[in-house]
Specification:
By secondary structure, this protein is of the alpha/beta class. It is built from ten helices and eight strands. It binds adenosine monophosphate (AMP) and manganese (II) ion (MN) (3 copies). The site of adenosine monophosphate (AMP) has 10 residues, from α6 and α7.
């Protein structure tokens, strides 16, 4: 069975509703899935309901935006409940996303690009989840960039002229929230972070583990094949559970579709075993 524990719906910056994403997972042969929207579990109940018709198992999920110094790091939480405590932990994330969007639009305006806030919002089905993805979609549609990636390279990526730093919860506090609420904390797409010095990723993993982090995304559709190999080795050395996910957002992306990311190496212990599923489920 194919397994995909990292995907997005239109409750954050994905293209499809949770129900349509489940339908796509069924077509793709995914039998165990997690919807991991950025900073919200709003779509999880709908995904669980839709999954019943296909016999697909759903582990509830979220991808929490965190800060590690000045760097943005994503922590996936699996097995959490969508409740008031989670809302308290996430705080006013919707308002912060809108404020940041306004500032990003001002920076784009200074470069001669007007109307970006309204434009980005027109792509966001839930304005409280306004994302850089929505800005990139609008910049692409308007012809300011010739592809989606270029929007991040030129304008929106960390350190680029329209990037606005946001203070998210710390890595440790997100990991502690997840673990103390019965979930499993997963360091998302570790190969994606450009942390500058070579030792920094080890320091990040040290801190993640010290806070109680149990798993690492070994296979991610949003990191390179070399990164998958490197972080498989990190999982072995640190005795971490291994997770896998396409990080799916859109059918237009050239990244893997649901379940299409590479399989986990056999010697690793998959993260789904923490939820009572057999290791062999992924074979
Ligand atoms: P935000 O949470 O609003 O800061 O937006 C971050 C989202 O932008 C990520 O979850 C990705 O979906 C997307 N993203 C960030 N960097 C890139 C990139 N270089 N190429 C494509 N998508 C990216
Ligand atoms: Mn995203
Ligand atoms: Mn991410
Ligand atoms: Mn993601």
């Amino acid at each position: 069975m194919r397994i995909d524990l990292h995907m997005h719906s239109n409750c954050s910056d994905g293209a499809l509703s949770p129900e349509k994403l489940v339908e796509l997972c069924a077509k793709q042969g995914v039998g165990l899935m997690s919807l991991t929207d950025h900073d919200t579990m709003a779509g999880v109940a709908a995904a669980q309901e839709a999954a019943k018709a296909y016999g697909i198992e759903v582990i509830p999920g979220i991808e929490i935006s965190t800060s590690w110094g000045l760097k943005g790091i994503h922590i996936v939480g699996l097995g959490l409940e969508n409740n008031d405590e989670l809302a308290d932990f996430l705080g006013n994330v919707g308002a912060r996303r809108l404020d940041r969007g306004r500032e990003m639009a001002q920076k784009l305006e200074k470069l001669g690009i007007s109307g970006a806030l309204e434009g980005a919002l027109s792509f966001a089905d839930y304005p409280e989840s306004l994302s850089r993805t929505h800005f990139a979609q609008w910049l692409w549609k308007m012809g300011y960039v010739s592809d989606f990636e270029e929007a991040f390279r030129r304008f929106l990526g960390e350190g680029r002229p329209c990037f606005v730093a946001t203070q998210w919860p710390s890595v440790s506090s997100a990991v502690r929230y997840i673990v103390s609420h019965g979930g499993v904390a997963v360091l998302a797409h570790p190969g994606r972070y450009r942390l500058g010095e070579e030792w920094a990723i080890d320091a990040l993993m040290d801190e993640f583990v010290a806070a109680g982090g149990q798993a690492i995304e070994v296979c991610s559709g949003s990191q390179s094949a070399q990164a998958n190999v490197r972080f498989a080795q990190a999982a072995r050395e640190r005795h971490l559970l291994a997770s896998t996910g396409s990080d799916w957002h859109s059918p237009l992306s050239n990244r893997p579709q649901p379940g299409d990311q590479p399989p986990l190496p056999h010697d690793l212990t998959p993260v789904w075993t923490a939820f009572g599923y057999a290791k062999e489920l992924g074979d």
